[in-house]
């Protein structure tokens, strides 16, 4: 089992050039996971694809797992930003319209780079990244609970936190189901998410 410290970067880049170097390393790691999977995925391979020396790699990351953890963090931030953008722009938008746009964000998040998403999902199960996932989940839950409150949703049992937790579980289950099965179109996944989530809300809440 990996220690938590082994998943942390050695240091944060402080200059633009250093930030670019870290970005190059992360992009190289993502390409390897996307195109080759975990086969041959190691520090030397990442440095090779990034076009940097292994010394430069170790200057910022202690191992490949720390790089993967950072990719997972970036992926979660991308999802949070997408959800937040929809909610910030929802205004007086119809509830159903806002929910459709939220589910579109989830769909695009899963299918934008499906091979990379699959690799990161598997690594989430292997690596001790619970803190990253829980932080992301908490931030999304807080935003959705507030959104549902402002739209007057009342849970028929439990709390709105319970409702949002169930919705997140539903979305995760449907997205995970795409990992090992045949390729799924954007329209198909979006429709599945819409049927499941909106159907659940229709049974679990009232306005």
TrEMBL record:
Keywords recorded for this protein, A-Z: DNA-binding, Transcription, Transcription regulation
Keyword check for DNA damage: no
Top-level division of the source organism's lineage: Bacteria
Stretches assigned to the HTH tetR-type domain: 19-79
The UniProt record lists the keyword GTP-binding: no
GO molecular function terms noted in the UniProt entry: DNA-binding transcription factor activity; transcription cis-regulatory region binding
One Pfam family here: TetR_C_15
DNA-binding region positions on the chain: 42-61
Protein name, per record: TetR family transcriptional regulator
Organism in which the protein naturally occurs: Aestuariispira insulae
Organism lineage string: Bacteria, Pseudomonadati, Pseudomonadota, Alphaproteobacteria, Rhodospirillales
């Amino acid at each position: 089992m990996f220690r938590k410290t082994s998943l942390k970067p050695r240091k944060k880049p402080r200059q633009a050039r250093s930030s670019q170097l870290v970005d190059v390393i992360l992009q190289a790691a993502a390409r390897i996971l996307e195109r080759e999977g975990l086969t041959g995925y190691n520090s030397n391979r990442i440095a090779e694809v990034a076009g940097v020396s292994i010394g430069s790699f170790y200057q910022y990351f202690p191992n490949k797992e720390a790089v993967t953890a950072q990719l997972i963090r970036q992926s979660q931030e991308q999802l949070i930003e997408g959800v937040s953008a929809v909610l910030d722009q929802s205004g007086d938008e119809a509830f159903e319209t806002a929910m459709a746009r939220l589910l579109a964000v989830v769909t695009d998040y899963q299918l934008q780079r499906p091979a990379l998403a699959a690799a990161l999902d598997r690594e989430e199960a292997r690596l001790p990244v619970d803190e990253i996932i829980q932080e992301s989940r908490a931030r999304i839950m807080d935003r959705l609970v507030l959104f549902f409150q402002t739209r007057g949703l009342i849970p028929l049992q439990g709390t709105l936190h319970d409702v949002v937790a169930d919705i997140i579980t539903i979305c995760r289950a449907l997205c995970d189901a795409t990992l090992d099965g045949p390729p799924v179109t954007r329209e198909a996944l979006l429709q599945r998410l819409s049927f499941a989530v909106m159907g659940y809300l229709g049974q679990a809440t009232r306005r």
